[in-house]
Write a structure and sequence with these properties.
Blueprint: E1 24-26, H1 29-36, E2 42-43, H2 58-69, H3 74-77, H4 81-95, E3 101-102, H5 103-120, H6 127-143, H7 146-164, H8 176-181, H9 192-223, H10 225-233, H11 237-250, E4 256-261, E5 265-267, E6 270-272, E7 277-281, H12 282-285, H13 300-303, H14 320-336, E8 338-343, E9 348-349, E10 357-359, E11 361-366
Parallel strand pairs: 1-7
Antiparallel strand pairs: 2-4, 3-11, 4-7, 5-6, 8-11, 9-10
Length: 367
C-alpha cells in the first residue's frame, strides 16, 4: 500500500512552482527519523496537489487520518482476507503453467489491480484500463516530464470521478468505496476533491507500490532458495510480515518523500531555512550501517525495529495493514504451490526515481 506521500517517488510534476532555497537530501537513518517525526518543523504540505491525509499537518491531518485509519483496522480488513486469498490463489494458478512469467507486471501489477478492486468493490472490467494507466504512469515518471505526469494523474482522477458519480445515491453500505463517499466521521461529508485524493492514494499509489514490491520479493525468493524453503515451512502471518519487510529494506523500491521546513532548523552540520525543501531518502536510511550491521545482511528479527519501509512518525503509511495482507497472501500462494522459483533470464532494474525492478522473468516449478 502506498505510504501516501511517504511511499511516493519524488517526481517533478509534484513539486512547488518555485523554490527559495536549494533542496537538502537527508540520508542518515537518525536524521530521516528526526525529520519524519517532527511535523511541527518539517511540514508534509510539500505538494501543489491535494493529498489526504498525508499532505496535511496538525489538527487537520489528525482528523482525516482518523477517518482513513478506520478502514485499515484488523476488524475492518477481516472480511476482505478470504477474498484477498482467493485472488492470490487464482492468479498464481493462472501463471503456474511452466511458462516464463514476468513477475513485476504479470504477477505484481495484475495482482495489485485485482486485489485492490476486490477490496474497494470495483468491477472486473476495470482491470485492463487500470493496468494501462499504471504502464503510462511509470513511463511518465521515468520521463521526468511534468506535463506528461500531470496528464496521467488527471486521467486517473477522471476515472475516480466516473466511479464516484453513480454511487452518490447509495446508502453507503455496499462496499468500501460507497462507505468512503458517505463518510462524515471527520465532522462533515467529504468534498469531491478529498474523496478523489483518498482513492488516488489507495489505488493509484498502491498499484505501483505493490507491483514494485512483488518484483523485489520474488527476485529475492528466487535467489535465496534457503529463505524460500524456510518460509514454506513457517508461513505464519507474523513470520511472513517480518521476512517480507526485511526483503524490502534491503532493496527498498520506494526512494524518497518530501518535507518543507516551517522554521530555521539544523540537521547534522547543515542549517535549514524556513521554506526550504527536505527530501527524505528512505533507501539510504534503510541501509545505514549505524543501524543495520551489516546493511546487506538478511536479519529479519534483528532489523525489524529500525526498518522504515513503511515510513515512521505521524505520517507513517496508513495502509500498511492492507499492504501486509496483500503481500503475505500472494507470497503464501506462490510458496504453497511451488518447490522452487527460478529466474528465467536477466532481470532489469528500474531507473530513479522508481526503485526495485522493471522486469523479473521467472519460472515457477510446481511441487
Amino acid at each position: 500500500m502506498e505510504r501516501d506521500d511517504e511511499m511516493q517517488t519524488t517526481t517533478s510534476d509534484d513539486s512547488r512552482d518555485t523554490e527559495a532555497h536549494e533542496t537538502i537530501t537527508v540520508r542518515a537513518h537518525a536524521e530521516v527519523v528526526r525529520v519524519a517525526t517532527d511535523p511541527g518543523r518539517f511540514s508534509s504540505a510539500a505538494s501543489r496537489f491535494l493529498q489526504v491525509p498525508n499532505g496535511l499537518d496538525g489538527a487537520e491531518h489528525a482528523r482525516f487520518r482518523a477517518l482513513v485509519d478506520r478502514y485499515f483496522t484488523q476488524e475492518a480488513l477481516a472480511p476482505f482476507a478470504p477474498r484477498c486469498r482467493s485472488v492470490a490463489k487464482a492468479l498464481v494458478a493462472e501463471v503456474s503453467q511452466g511458462r516464463v512469467v514476468e513477475a513485476v507486471w504479470e504477477i505484481g501489477a495484475s495482482y495489485a489491480v485485482r486485489a485492490q478492486s476486490a477490496w474497494l468493490g470495483w468491477p472486473g472490467e476495470l482491470e485492463r484500463p487500470l493496468l494501462d494507466w499504471l504502464t503510462d504512469r511509470f513511463e511518465a515518471i521515468r520521463s521526468g516530464d511534468p506535463v506528461r505526469t500531470a496528464e496521467v494523474a488527471q486521467r486517473f482522477d477522471a476515472l475516480m470521478v466516473s466511479l464516484i458519480e453513480p454511487r452518490r445515491e447509495s446508502d453507503g453500505s455496499r462496499d468500501i468505496t460507497d462507505q468512503l463517499i458517505h463518510d462524515a466521521s471527520a465532522g462533515r461529508p467529504l468534498r469531491d476533491g478529498e474523496i478523489v485524493s483518498i482513492l488516488r492514494n489507495w489505488t493509484g499509489g498502491d498499484l505501483g507500490s505493490i507491483a514494485l514490491a512483488v518484483g523485489v520479493i520474488v527476485h529475492f525468493l528466487a535467489t535465496h532458495e534457503g529463505v524460500a524453503t524456510h518460509l514454506r515451512q513457517h508461513v505464519t502471518d507474523e513470520t511472513l510480515d517480518v521476512y517480507l519487510e526485511e526483503m524490502l529494506r534491503l532493496d527498498d523500491p520506494f526512494h524518497a518523500s518530501r518535507r518543507v521546513a516551517t522554521c530555521e532548523a539544523h540537521l547534522d552540520d547543515r542549517s535549514i531555512q524556513a521554506g526550504q525543501r527536505v527530501v527524505l531518502d528512505w533507501r539510504s536510511a534503510n541501509r545505514d550501517p549505524n543501524v543495520f550491521s551489516p546493511p546487506d545482511g538478511f536479519s529479519p528479527g534483528v532489523n525489524a525495529a529500525g526498518n522504515v519501509v513503511y515510513g515512521i512518525g505521524p505520517h507513517v503509511c496508513p495502509g500498511r495493514p492492507l499492504a501486509r495482507l496483500e503481500l503475505r497472501e500472494l507470497v503464501r500462494a506462490l510458496l504453497s504451490t511451488t518447490s522452487r522459483i527460478d529466474l528465467a533470464g536477466e532481470s532489469a532494474r528500474e531507473q530513479p526515481p522508481l526503485g526495485g525492478f522493471r522486469s523479473v522473468p521467472i519460472q515457477l516449478v510446481a511441487r
